[in-house]
Amino acid sequence: MKPLSKKSLVSKAVKTQDFMANPVFPNDARWMGAAIAESRRAVGNSGVNPPVGCVLVTAGGHLLASGHTGVAGVPHAEAAVLATLDDMGRSAIRGGTAYVTLEPCAHHGKTPPCADALIATGIARLVVAIKDPDTRVNGAGMQRIAAAGIEVCLGVKAKEAHDVMRGFINRIQYNKPLCSLKIAASIDGKIALADGEKRWLTGPRMRRYVHLLRSQADAIITGIGTVLADNPQMNCRNAGLEDLSPPVFVFDRLLRIPSDAALLQSQHPLTLFCGEGAPAHRREELGAAGCVIVVLPNDANGKPDVEAALRYLGETGVNNAFVEAGTGLVTSFFSSRCSRSNLLDAIGPYFRRGRLARDWRINAACWYLVTLLTRPSPHNDRYSGDQHGGNLCRKQVYPVASSDDRWRPADHFTKTTRRSRQGTGLSHVYWYHYSDWPH
Prior knowledge:
CATH superfamily of the largest domain: Dihydrofolate Reductase, subunit A
Distance between the termini: 36 Å
Strand order of the largest sheet: 11-10-9-8-12-6-13-16-15
Radius of gyration: 24 Å
Number of strands: 16
Helix content: 25-40%
Mean pLDDT: 77
CATH topology of the largest domain: Dihydrofolate Reductase, subunit A
CATH class of the largest domain: Alpha Beta
Strand content: 15-25%
CATH architecture of the largest domain: 3-Layer(aba) Sandwich
Low-confidence stretches: 1-14, 337-341, 353-365, 370-439
């Protein structure tokens, strides 16, 4: 392949820089923030497409319409917003500004190019948060709109927009979903009683929060151990979110899932990741029951390979995967993390205040997590979300209320937690992204 000349590299860089050099007005951040708020409503429900938000503002600075990517990715955010305009609205948008969290597409797919639709509205400006990394777009949408005489501004609130679309971007770049792991444990790393007796570690409001997280995922991943022990439904049971329950993927090496399991009675799709040694008759029975059976190669421990499973999810268009599992599968993910396979992108530790009795089962993976979080940091006094000098870097903070269980992160975050809790009565959950973990 012929290498690119220095001239061609410079010309491409200048084209992108031209968009970022265009003037930004005081209200641009405000309206882009509204578009980002719209995009959050599509997280976990946009199918293979990114969760995009769009806001239309008149030349006089008045909000005209807003919207986001539709269910399963159709319609695109721009098309959804334009479809709400009547004749008066189409007249009012002329000379106005469109705010989009991701570069409009320039190719024909299930819908016509959004770039052409925006050009047809007669807008004077287009403000974009981030460029689309998809090779079918990757600057082509902005180039087409700029060629039509519309001023294009790139980079407004780019970080916030990127955080919302992290799953889509991760899948495009690495061919795997953004994989988040939820762990509920005591501060000393225990997750269950040794005799298997059930006992809640979380309060009702924390459990409702987990259901909200499920609704924002494209897939839930669990293991056969959890299915056999708890017979979970793995769906969203918050009022109004019932229809947003994502498909469930179960690691079941020998296809031991019972025929009366709640997951088999659900209307939501179920996929079973089995090993090469799974009985053929079980594959046929479960396939006839509506399950999708995916045979994975074994890893070094003779279990279905986690990396192969995530590659499968990426190929099927899953942007965000939410892992809710027990000791076995959690340890597999952590073991792969320790080998720097980058399988986990975010960890959600839910720590219960205080230690539990000695007869509680210890999860080695949780214990490793606890030791990292409780390790003293020399940067406690100046710790902040953008501080990379500490032991871990906090990227996102989600407030979570809990009425009967008081949750808080590890000791060296207590000062920050107390400051944010004043007058709220809320606990906080901290997500730690893999790239910020010490190696």
